């Protein structure tokens, strides 16, 4: 039997929140801060950085496009410009997430990754030995989800740990 305060200290849950530039992903982070890591649940002053990981995955810029029948390759300067813009966007997204955590006095480690978001989220969660992946729901309709897929749907079916998809509350004025 492994009881006592020392065992409880070692068994803190490691949570990874995947964020992008959507309101839904920041709502999911806020939900984690309020419901999982809030002072009433786990004392925020006892929380360490290894408990909360916030990741952002940048999709690689395609180095070719097919408008019609011919392949078009962007110049090096265009690729560099797009990469710089993506890095600045990722930095701003994570800065906003860190501010949200700081307001609640919660420490978090952040990471920017590059690749296919759905695969990277699963891979990184496994590498980091995460206990729970949390992500926001974009609310794609059935048709869009069938054609373009859903990152959360993929992660739910392929992650090796539990996945929590946080849906924002329904708009009360949406019918007006």
List the helices and strands and how they pair.
Blueprint: H1 5-10, E1 15-18, H2 23-36, E2 52-58, H3 76-103, E3 109-114, H4 117-127, E4 132-136, H5 142-148, H6 151-158, E5 163-166
Parallel strand pairs: 1-2, 1-4, 2-3, 4-5
Helix pairs in contact: 4-6
Assign the CATH superfamily of the domain at 13-60 and 92-166: HUPs
Q: What is the helix content?
A: 40-55%
Q: Identify low-pLDDT runs.
A: 172-176
Counting helices, strands and paired strands, the structural category is: alpha/beta
* CATH hierarchy class name of the domain at 13-60 and 92-166: Alpha Beta
> Biggest sheet, in brief?
5 strands, parallel
- Mean pLDDT comes to 81
Instruction: Write down how many β-strands occur, each being a DSSP E stretch of 2 or more residues.
Output: 5
Distance between the termini: 58 Å
By DSSP (H or I, 4+ residues per run), the number of helices equals 6
């Amino acid at each position: 039997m492994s009881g006592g305060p020392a065992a409880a200290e070692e068994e803190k849950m490691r949570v990874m929140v995947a964020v992008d530039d959507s309101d839904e992903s920041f709502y999911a982070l806020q939900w984690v801060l309020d419901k999982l890591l809030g002072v009433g649940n786990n004392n925020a002053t006892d929380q360490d950085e290894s408990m909360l990981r916030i990741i952002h995955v940048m999709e690689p810029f395609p180095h070719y496009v097919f408008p019609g029948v011919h392949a078009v390759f962007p110049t090096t300067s265009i690729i560099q410009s797009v990469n710089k813009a993506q890095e600045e966007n990722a930095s701003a997204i994570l800065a906003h997430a860190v501010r949200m955590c700081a307001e609640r006095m919660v420490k978090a480690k952040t990471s920017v990754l590059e690749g296919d978001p759905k695969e990277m989220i699963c891979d990184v969660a496994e590498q980091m030995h995460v206990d729970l992946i949390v992500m926001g729901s974009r609310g794609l309709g059935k048709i869009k989800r069938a054609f373009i897929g859903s990152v959360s749907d993929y992660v739910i079916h392929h992650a090796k740990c539990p996945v929590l998809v946080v849906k924002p509350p329904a708009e009360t004025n949406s019918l007006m």
